Amino acid sequence: MIRGDVTLASPLSLYSIPVVWCTTFYPGSMKFMLIDKTIGYNNVQPRANLARASDHKNIPPKLAAKLQRMEGAHQASSITYLSVKIVANIAGLDNAFLNKMSLAYIAARILYNQIYIHQEKPSTSWIRYASEAQSTILCILISEWL
Asked: CA nearest 73: which of 125, 15, 14?
């Protein structure tokens, strides 16, 4: 437990792990809510919902494509970050450095998800790729300090 003043040098980076998990999880939750609102979510066969929504006559093609992008953003997990973050903390890297990297990674993942979900053109897909590369580079930067 942290007592006293919380500063950038406080050991906070491990708290980023559940936040990063949420950035991976929320696109899937958004997909669930959208499917449930439009055609009803089938919890007996949850993996069939995306195909069912994509083929449904009342779902416009743009919305079906958005649902597929939500699934893609959900599947882009952050296991590399989680592994690097745990090892970096065990190795005793500087807390301020790890906290800054954690905030940068969280921002990069949120940006990635938003771009992925809302992009509709091939030209904007490259921006998504750049935000994914940014989060990967942050993991590499952390691992370089190990």
From this structure: 125
